[in-house]
Amino acid sequence: MKTTTKTILTALVTIMLPQWLAPMSLAANQVPSTQKTVTQTSLRDPFWPVGFTPIPTKVKEIEKKRSQLEKRIKWPKLELKGITRTSDNRYIAVIKGVGLVETGDTISAKKDGLIYRWRITAITKAGISRKRLDVKEVSTNLQKRK
């Protein structure tokens, strides 16, 4: 039985050894024809579902769209219609196109396909203080409805 095992091992080594050593014998810049070269597109996250391929991001297109959006941004002025004081000494304001606002309220206005948002930080008898929050594009579905 020892002779049989030795014979099998010898046969395995003589058959498999050239295949194991073949990749090592190639020059550093040679790739055997049976192996694929690894490219950036063939790499995948091991946690992706089977068959999933990510959508390639087009950074230049995104940056171009962002710069076009930044050119369109022109913050509209909020037209203050009036300020009044409530019975508990808080001030509230009336803004044209928005309505009654209090300190801490977030308001928005649509202009030229963009939605502008502010937060009212303070209301005094002298006027209102506001903080610009963000600008978003109106989605195409909303534009078609109106």
Could you please describe the fold and organization of this structure?
With 146 residues, this protein is of the alpha+beta class. The protein has a domain at 65-140. 30% of the residues lie in helices and 29% in strands. The chain contains three helices and six strands. The protein has helices at 2-25, 59-72, 140-145; strands at residues 80-85, 91-95, 99-101, 106-111, 114-124, 127-137. The strands form two sheets. The protein has a three-stranded antiparallel sheet with strand order 1-2-3, with no helix packed on it. Strands 4-5-6 form a three-stranded antiparallel sheet, with no helix packed on it. The relative contact order is 0.09. The mean pLDDT is 78.
Radius of gyration: 35 Å
Number of helices: 3
Strand order of the largest sheet: 1-2-3
Stretches with pLDDT under 50, minimum 5 residues: none
- Kindly name the structural category: alpha+beta
- Overall morphology: rod-shaped
- Profile the largest sheet: 3 strands, antiparallel
Termini separation (Å)? Answer: 89 Å
The average pLDDT is 78
How much strand content do the residues show?
A: 25-35%
What is the share of helical residues?
A: 25-40%
Tally of DSSP β-strands: 6
Order of helices and strands: HHEEEEEEH
